[in-house]
From TrEMBL:
Residues 6-104 form the YCII-related domain. It comes from the Bacteria. The lineage of its organism: Bacteria, Bacillati, Actinomycetota, Actinomycetes, Propionibacteriales. InterPro entries: Dimeric_a/b-barrel, YCII. This is YCII-related domain-containing protein.
Amino acid sequence: MPTPTHVLLHRYTPGSGPAEGTAEHDAEMRQWAQVDEDLLTKGALVAGFALDGPGKQLGATQTPGDDMVFAVHVIAAASDAEAEQIASRMPHVGYGSVEVRPLMAR
């Protein structure tokens, strides 16, 4: 397994992007599958998860917002620039965002 270096936190505002059950949504799902396949082939995908609905924030620093994290990729990248290049390929960047977070060295 590749050594993880970055986490990509995928965000969007509910109601934005293609609606489920449409041709546009189906096309985006195919794009997500292709991105994951490309990352696997390159040896850069450590793990990927789609999240189910909004979560519950706990703790003293809760900051409610309009957007939500809907998926997470853990990747292995040679640099921050490479991680950012990978993030820029995500299908939802036109209506959402990707937060690129480097992992702390152990």
